[in-house]
Design brief:
Blueprint: H1 6-47, H2 50-83, H3 86-120, H4 127-156, E1 161-164, E2 169-172, H5 175-179, H6 182-213, H7 217-252, H8 254-261, E3 272-281, E4 289-297, H9 300-306, H10 316-321, H11 331-354, H12 357-370, H13 391-421, H14 428-435, H15 438-454, E5 459-461, E6 465-466, H16 476-507
Antiparallel strand pairs: 1-2, 3-4, 5-6
Helix pairs in contact: 1-2, 1-4, 1-6, 1-15, 1-16, 2-3, 2-7, 2-16, 3-4, 4-6, 6-7, 6-14, 6-15, 7-8, 7-13, 8-13, 11-12, 13-15
Length: 511
C-alpha cells in the first residue's frame, strides 16, 4: 500500500468514534439500572410493600427512556462496519460477525421480548412472572454486552482463528477459544462492572436531588441504599478487574501499556506514574513527551504488569527500535517480516492460478513463517514511529479513569455510612456533591474506552490488520457529510433524552 488516503482513514475513525461514544452514553445506564430495578422488584414481591412497587416503576420509566434512544445509536454503529470498514468486514467477517449475530438472535431477542412484559404486564401477569421478566431483561442486556465485548476483545487479541490464503479471509477454527479469550473475558467483566458504577451514580444522584428538594423522601432513601451498596460492590469489582486488565495488556499489547504510562525507556523495576503532567515535546524522531510534573511509585508498574517488581517492562523506544538484550524485535524488523508475508501471499495466489503447486506450497510455507507480522507489512517504506499511538491521550484518559474510580470508592463508602446512620438527608453539601458526580461517571466510562481504542492504534486487529487497510474504498467527502449528519442527529437525540429524563424526574414517583 504505497498511497494512503489519510483523510479517508481519519474521517472514518472519527465517525466510528463519534457513534461509539454517543452509543456508550446510553449503554452503561441500561446495564446497571436493570439489575437495580430487578432487585427493587424482588423486595416488593417479598414484602408486598406497595412503596417498593412505586419505586420500581419510577426507575423503570427512566430506564425505558434511556433504552429506546440507546437502541437507535447501536444499530447505526453496526451498519458502519459495512459502509466505512468493508475491507475489515471482509477480512474477519466470519469471526467478528459470529458474536454479533449471537447477540442479535439470543441476547437482544430475549431482552426485547421480556421488556414488553416488564413495562405492560403489571396487571396482566402474575407477580412472579413479571419479576422473572425483569430479571431476564437485566440478564439479556448484559448478555448483549457480552457478545459485543467478545468481538472487541478478539480484535485486541486475535485467537482461535486461521487465515485461509485461498479465500483471503480469516476463519474461526475454535469458537471456545474466541469466547473464552482471556482478554475478552476480562474486557467483559471490567466494562460491565464499571458500567454499574455509572448506573449507581445516576440513581444516588437523582435520589439526592429529591432529598435536597425534600420530595419523595422514602423513594430517595431506599433507592440510595440499594444503589450505594450496588455501586460500592461495583467499584471494588472494577478495581479488581482493572488490575487483571493491566496484566492482560502487558502481555498482549505492550505498546498500549507503555502509552498508558508514558513509558519511553524500558526498565526492570519500572515505576508507576500515579500522576503526571506533560510539558514540551522532546525534539527527537519518536517525539518523546517530557513530563513537566510527575509522581512515581517505584517498581509498581513492573509488579502490576507481571506480579514481579524486578520484571522488565518495555517502553516505547524498546518496541520501536528493539531491545536485543530483552529479545524484543524492532518495528523495522517486524515491518520487513510483514512485507515478506504479504509478498509470499501474493506469490502464492499467482502460483495457484498458473498451476505451479510446488511454488505455491513453498510460498505458503514462507507466509506462515512470517504471518504473525502480517499487519506490519502495510507500513513497509514508511516511518515506523507511525505505529506509536497518541501517548498524551492514552496517558491522560487512563489516569482520569483511575483517579475518578478512587473518588467513586470514597464517595460510596461515605454514602453507605451516612445511610446506615440515617442522617444523609442532613448532609446537604454531600447530597449536592453526589448529584454533580453523575457526569463524572460518564467521563470515567468514556475515558476507559479511549484508553482501550486509542491505545491500540493504529491496529483495527492487533498486529494483524491496521486501520489503513481496513477502510472502505469510498470518497472521504461522503464520510465527512455523514459524520456531521450523525453529530446533529445524535446530539438532538441526547438533548431530547435529557429533557424527557428531567421532566420525568421532576414529576417524581406520583406520575
Amino acid at each position: 500500500m504505497n498511497h494512503i488516503d489519510w483523510e479517508l482513514v481519519n474521517w472514518s475513525r472519527a465517525q466510528f468514534a463519534l457513534t461509539a461514544m454517543y452509543h456508550w452514553l446510553f449503554v452503561p445506564l441500561t446495564l446497571g439500572t436493570t439489575f437495580m430495578i430487578a432487585i427493587m422488584e424482588t423486595i416488593y414481591v417479598k414484602t408486598q410493600d406497595e412503596k417498593w412497587k412505586e419505586i420500581t416503576k419510577f426507575w423503570m420509566k427512566l430506564f425505558g427512556i434511556n433504552f429506546a434512544i440507546g437502541v437507535a445509536t447501536g444499530i447505526i454503529l453496526e451498519f458502519e462496519f459495512g459502509t466505512n470498514w468493508s475491507n475489515y468486514s471482509w477480512f474477519v467477517g466470519d469471526i467478528f460477525g459470529a458474536p454479533l449475530a449471537i447477540e442479535g438472535i439470543m441476547a437482544f431477542f430475549m431482552e426485547s421480548t421480556f421488556i414488553a412484559v416488564m413495562f405492560f404486564g403489571w396487571d396482566r401477569v402474575s407477580q412472579k412472572f413479571h419479576l422473572t421478566s425483569s430479571w431476564l431483561v437485566a440478564i439479556g442486556s448484559n448478555l448483549s454486552a457480552l457478545w459485543i465485548l467478545v468481538a472487541n476483545g478478539w480484535m485486541q487479541n486475535p485467537v482461535g482463528v486461521q487465515f485461509n490464503p485461498d479465500t483471503m479471509r480469516n476463519e474461526m477454527i475454535d469458537f471456545w477459544a474466541v469466547l473464552l479469550n482471556p482478554v475478552a473475558v476480562n474486557k467483559f467483566l471490567h466494562t460491565v462492572i464499571s458500567s454499574y458504577i455509572v448506573s449507581a451514580l445516576f440513581v444516588v444522584g437523582v435520589s439526592s436531588w429529591f432529598l435536597l428538594k425534600r420530595r419523595d423522601i422514602v423513594l430517595a432513601k431506599r433507592s440510595i441504599l440499594i444503589a450505594t451498596v450496588f455501586g460500592l460492590l461495583a467499584t471494588i469489582g472494577t478495581f479488581w478487574s482493572g488490575d487483571e486488565s493491566a496484566r492482560q495488556v502487558a502481555s498482549t499489547q505492550p505498546m498500549k501499556l507503555a502509552a498508558m504510562e508514558g513509558l519511553y525507556e524500558g526498565d526492570r523495576s519500572a515505576p508507576l506514574i500515579a500522576m503526571g503532567i506533560f510539558g514540551e515535546q522532546d525534539n527527537t524522531v519518536h517525539k518523546k513527551e517530557q513530563f513537566l510534573v510527575e509522581f512515581q511509585i517505584p517498581k509498581a508498574l513492573s509488579y502490576l504488569a507481571f506480579l514481579d517488581s524486578d520484571r522488565f517492562v518495555p517502553g516505547i523506544s524498546d518496541l520501536v527500535h528493539g531491545n536485543k538484550k530483552e529479545g524484543i524485535p524492532s518495528y523495522d524488523e517486524r515491518i520487513s517480516s510483514g512485507k515478506i508475508a504479504i509478498d509470499a501471499l501474493r506469490n502464492y495466489g499467482d502460483a495457484k492460478k498458473s498451476g505451479n503447486l510446488p511454488k505455491a506450497e513453498a510460498e505458503l510455507k514462507t507466509f506462515r513463517a512470517h504471518e504473525k507480522d502480517f499487519g506490519y507489512g502495510y507500513y513497509f517504506g514508511k516511518n515506523p514511529h507511525m505505529l506509536i499511538p497518541n501517548v498524551k491521550m492514552s496517558f491522560y484518559s487512563f489516569h482520569i479513569m483511575v483517579i475518578l474510580g478512587t473518588y467513586f470508592l470514597v464517595l460510596f463508602i461515605i454514602l453507605f455510612i451516612k445511610t446506615l446512620k440515617g442522617n444523609l438527608d442532613k448532609s446537604r453539601a454531600l447530597l449536592r456533591l453526589t448529584l454533580w458526580s453523575i457526569p463524572l461517571g460518564y467521563i470515567a466510562s468514556q475515558s476507559g474506552w479511549v484508553v482501550a481504542e486509542v491505545g491500540r492504534q493504529p491496529w483495527t486487529i492487533q498486529n494483524l490488520l491496521p486501520n489503513i487497510a481496513s477502510v472502505s474504498q469510498i470518497d472521504a467527502y461522503s464520510v465527512q457529510i455523514t459524520f456531521f449528519l450523525f453529530l446533529i442527529i445524535f446530539t438532538t437525540l441526547l438533548i431530547a433524552e435529557i429533557k424527557i429524563m428531567l421532566s420525568a424526574i421532576r414529576k417524581g414517583s406520583q406520575h
